Description:
Structural class: alpha/beta
Number of strands: 16
Radius of gyration: 24 Å
Order of helices and strands: EHHEEHEHEHEHEHEEEHEHEHEHHEEHE
Shape: globular
Low-confidence stretches: 27-40, 198-213, 231-246
Strand order of the largest sheet: 8-9-10-7-11-12-13
Amino acid sequence: MKPIIAIVGRPNVGKSTLFNRLVGRRKAMVDDRPGVTRDRNYAEVDRFDIPFILVDTGGFEPETEDRLLQQMREQSLFAMEEADLILFVMDGRDGLTPADRDVVKMLRRVDKPIFYVINKVDGEKLEDAAADFYTLGIDTIHTISAEHNRGVGDLMDEVLTKLPAPGRDETEEEITKIAVVGRPNVGKSTLVNRLLGFERVVANPTAGTTRDSVDTRFMCNKKPYLLIDTAGIRRKGKTTEKLEKYSVMDALRSIERADVVLIVLNAEDGVTEQDSKIAGYAYEAGRGCIFVVNKWDTLAKDNSSMGKFVEEIRRSFKYLPFAPILFISAKTGQRTGKIISEVDRVMEQFSRRVSTSELNRIFSQATDEHHAPLDQGKRVKFYFSTQVATKPPSFVIFTNRPEGIHFSYERYLMNKFREAFGFDGTPLRLMFRGRDKKDR
């Protein structure tokens, strides 16, 4: 399980610039990608020695009557609570403000590593002025310019020494790990209880993480499963509004450890923006996904109702065309018996490895039938493909112009692999690499 770093601070101090700098790219808007439909404020970062999840937050104003700023403050507080480490960002050009002092007073009560970062320090004059921040009683401040990448590397060198190492699985035995995620009040708890009743054998309920999520082992058809319930969403003291807005944060940790994710939707509500955020993270994490439409028994339906709901899901989650859709009632047990068999089907594909010879036969056939578009007027040549990983199945394709593969052609190859090898229920990963510079 990857540690979480939260970036907090007043509005306009450069939090998003630092976020993009650490992620290593700007958040791109690409057709049929989750970023098109989601307002991402988190990202997986694998560029450093320790991988982590980075969370960007809205501006933090300690005292305000503005409702939007109050909501942004709630967001920051929630992120601070969930994080393993906090980067508190201040503005070196504005200098020390009363609001900064108020936040620092609050942070003194937080028992986790906190780095005090003075941003927009891109010259000696501002470097000297930053000394005023020591009047806060802070032992160490870190002066950076996120925009110009000044001091960011030194900051991260120290940050990494304070991060906990990513957690390991409790056991190496083959066990299918299932995460149940979704907005509050979609019926996750009822579904979890229903799933645990399959064989009436619940073994070793164990505490999962320090953030109250609970892992439960159970058996079904003589096979072991680990159910990861996002119990943290139901923690006491959180208002419904905050739960609704930030349930993504709780889902992150569960998704990180899962093989297959049950994305629970409420049939009464249809698809919401929050559903898109949670599903998008499961997609980007490369997990097997199953849409579970709960409370289907409560709707007045006709012969076209299910088809219309399927269309809504496919339209809203274009980046998950492979995810199966189940319509259930966790309360009555209607069709819940199909969930584990669908999990098994997705898991088998998620773990499947294909032979290199058969892979390249299909690959050559696909590239011969439909050539890749020219890249800057030059032909794209393909050499061979190999599978490099499972969970999800991941393939490296060697080509003379790896940077020139259009997304539409990548999708074409992916669909060919799905059709040929029966990967209709799992995510796939394609990576394009150059073979030799002289071939380009």
